[in-house]
Structures are given as C-alpha cells and as structure tokens.
Amino acid sequence: MRRARNICLGIDTTGNYCSVAIVDDCGILAFAVEEMSRGHAERLGLMVKDALAKASIKVSDIDKIAVSSGPGSFTGLRVGLSFAKGLALPHSIPVVGISILEIWAISSDPAQNGSVLACADVRRNQVFWQIFTNGIAETPPHLTGIDAAITALNMQTECVGNGAHLLGAFEEQDSYVCPARLAWIGLDRNVNTHPAIPLYHRPPDAKLPGGKSL
Asked: Which helix (H) or strand (E) is 67 found in, with range?
C-alpha cells in the first residue's frame, strides 16, 4: 500500500560510498549507505531493491528519482546516472540531477538563510567550487587553483565540502553525500533546471590519435 504522495528515491555513487534513500514529504522510508571505493555497479541494484522492500512500495510508486550529478568519480558518476535513468524509463518517472556542491551547501544551511561556498577537492592543486546564498546558486561551478578559491571565499559565512580544509576550514570533511537530503532536495527540483546530466570538474584526459581532445 502506498504510504504517501511525493515519494523520491535518492541515489549517490559519486565518491567512496554507495548510498540510497527513499523519502516522502513526512520522513525517511528507507536508508542505506555502504562505504566502498569500487563495486558501486554491483551493489546499487540490490540496495535499491532492499530499500523498496523496506519502504513497502514498488518502483511504480516512486514520483521522482534524484541522483548525484557530480563532481566525483567518473565511473561512479556514470553508474548512478545510468541506473537512475534505466529504472525510471519504463515507468516514466522524472529524474533530476543534483550536484554534490548543492547537496553539501544545503546540508550545512538547511534553513537556507546564509551564504555557503561548497568546495570539492579535485586534486592537482585545484578545487571545484560554487557559492550558494539562501539555498540558491549565486555563481556557476568554477574549477580554479586553491588561491583563487580562497579569494572568492572572502566574507562567506561557511565553507563546506571535501575541499574545504584546503581553503582554511578547521576540520577535514570526506565526500559523503546524505542520500535522504539528496532525495528531499530532489522533490523540490525539476528536470528543466536540474537535468540528469554529469557535472565533470575537468575534461577527460584521454586523447584521440594525434593528440586531439575528445
């Protein structure tokens, strides 16, 4: 029996976790997180199956799917997006993509009344960051060196994300994304403003013959 309207499945496979949650307007119906650096493709389907059973619903009961769109592991990112679209297609379920920068920002400012710089450590002495004010993106995502991001931080009230410590935050954070928070954000987003497409922090390193870029 369907428990509530507005049910959303949240999926994150962008980092060192495989995370799934099913939420509705009132609370969490199912929640599962497993830490892993690889193997997301093998575990994700089973985790979603278990979550559906725990929530006592069918796939067709889901109103929306929210999937982390990046930045993150190239392989993990593709796993999550491909699975979400494959699950949604036969049931005509809308799929929205939410960046982990937005998830980090709203998780740290749930009242959405502050200013937050969300920052991802993407190696090579670079960070991928974006500023959110009152829960709304104030800037597009930027890939810059650490010094440029520190300059942009300026008087922002908070810096969050797994790259925040590079900008002077006191505590180092990992890449964890709460799938329930992801799903709740997804309930308020639409496919036009948040399409389920990958957000890459830099172009692929692979080159075509002759050194041409893909």
From this structure: strand 64-68
